[in-house]
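Training component of the fellowship. As part of building independent skills, the fellow (R.M.) carried out the full modelling exercise for a liganded target. The chosen ligand was zinc ion. The inputs are recorded below so that the supervisory panel can assess the work.
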Amino acid sequence: MEKRHLDLLELLVKYNTESPPARNTDPLQDEIEALLKDLGFETTRIPLYENDSVINAILKGTDSDAPKLIINGHVDVANVGDDREWQYPPFEVTQVDDYLYGRGVSDMKGGFATLLYTLEKLQEEGLRPKGDIIVQSVVGEEVGEAGTKVACEHGPKADLGLVLDTSEQMALGQGGVITGWVTVQSKTTIHDGARQQMVHAGGGLFGASAIEKMTKVIASLRELEQHWAVMKSYPDMPSGSTTINPAYIEGGRHPAFIADECKLWFTVHYLPNEHYNDVVREIEDHLNKMAEADIWLRENPLKFEWGGTSMIEDKGEIFPSFTLPKAHQGYALLEDVYKEVHGDKLPSGMSTTVTDGGWLEDFGVPTILFGPGKLTEAHSVDEKIEIKDLESFEQVLYGFLKRWYQAPVK
Ligand SMILES: [Zn+2]
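Fellow's submitted model of the complex:
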């Protein structure tokens, strides 16, 4: 492995950008911004949270009408946990045999360092891109914070997006995730002592327990999940991927009262070719029809809250889905370069996890997830990456960018 390539990886890993707790990436973003400026990029810094910001960096092409490329990477890493479980220091790169160890080497500082190294090489060779190259250096990916969404909102659109997050050098799309809250809320608060009038013949008190009504909501979500599992499918997605997980529940106030509020927090997984707006509508329609058939829920309608921009700040997240743009000439280019480097066909499929790539597609940019590192290493104790993996990824990225610089495609 080239020394400069390793130096760049060491630079990225040495900054502790764990998330949670987050709010710690600005010092590393300062370094990356300075590096990109040295390479001729014009940079814009967009504040996200205290000490966390997003960089949009543009290397202007020689032809303003030529196709543009977005390359996206996140600099936050998963929480290390108890570092006594680590055999190697998490915020240093340690080489043992054919592997490099350190937090983020697989997810995704290895991919990011390789991008910086490749951009330097192209610069040293005096290559200027024909179309704009936009690098998004984002934060917040690990806790569902919409760093990439913000980068897209503040930056230019492009004709293709490459997300260099962990993908074992497979070209991947992904299913989407959206979290939601459904609330059952009573218009009246009833004392425990009045339950007898509320539930028995002749009692004459129209009321209900929000907790008991929530059991109907949970049963309805289960029915919808079952229906989806039977009816929905997408190539390379395991059947039944469209799950609805009732993940967290809170409700009631005290044993002296009938529960007048109950909130359920749930996670929905949907297919690459679905949009979260449609999925949300399906769930709301289904639950509202169930509620319409319930005498009390009819008078005390369900309330919904969807998504959010951070699991830390507002208990919600969205990772939009994206399909693989296999008909895009940029995909063919990646296939060609991959074949030259690896000698066989570019493997493709659907990610078993979620990345920021969906925000690019949501923004109208055809997107490919393609990065080094193994998914089993992401977030693990003693995270590692094979040196060979980084080297061959570098060859693919270099080959791809070199050709894209000269002849960007749509
Ligand atoms: Zn990642």
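The panel noted the following from the submitted structure. The chain has a mean pLDDT of 97. Residues 74, 107-108, 141, 165-166, 355 surround zinc ion (CB under 6 Å).
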